[in-house]
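Appendix B, example 12.
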Amino acid sequence: MITDFLMRDCEPLFLNEGATRAELELKKLQALKYVVADEDKKRLAQDIRLARAGVAGEKRIVFELRNSHYPLIFIHDLQLEFEGTSAQIDFLVVTPYNTIAIECKNLVGNIEIDANGSFVRTLGRGRYRKREGIYSPITQGRRHVELMKAIVRSEHGKAIQLVQHFTHDDYYHSVVVLANEKSLLTIDDAPKELQEQVIRGDRLLDFIRALDKRYARKNGRESFKAMRNRAERWLKRSVPRTRDLADSYRIAKTARQAKEETTPSPKNVETVPTCPLCGSPMVLRTARYGKNKGNKFWGCSTYATTQCRGIVEYGGRG
């Protein structure tokens, strides 16, 4: 049973507050606006809109958790790797009774889960309506939970692993939170177990309370200190990864780059000889008089000051 003194004595704790991966990637995308090639600007604008929507959705989840007045600790953007498998968990919430992986989706349009458990999104209205299937975020959340279980089991002896194999199913959970307030969620035809794993953002605290109440007796209550230790262990396991977003776009050439591309490279330009008399660099000149009038030749660059008359025959064209 969740007691009243727990609610009064402990407030939510945001363990890794600061700029998130999604926010940093949005800034990188916005910076690309000034250098991306014209043919990629439309795609970049769409990616910026999606990234901005994702950041807005995550901020709504942060607001709900931070203002829950509930004894929980949460981590934003936990990135895990184990035996060649990786997972990016939007939020990990540690409560006195459970550990919950939250998959945040700021999906545009109306979301429906049919009797087969498939996700269908409807965009537009009337004759302009478009229905499309999308990858199930429930499956994604379940994979995250399985990876977390595997990591914990790997850090203990075989005897403890055997016990944990039968207890972790009641301790680690996942939920999909639809953060877009304008989207409709239709789940009446979905299997009951799926209905419980997809919620709207404003129902997140109710979901956490109900889950803790359901598993309170079986899992037992942890102190806030023990909760923090557990959350910090997960944060230490995190392996931050960054993406080079510029690789997927063609970068517009600067005026200098364009000029360099049209200028012959050194290997295609005749090497400037040195004066055979004084060793100074030579310059290309054109004969004005005599039988060689109009022909080019290499003359010493110091002729005007030293009157050096070193000459080298020009072997190029023109």
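The chain has a mean pLDDT of 81. Residues 4-248 form one domain.
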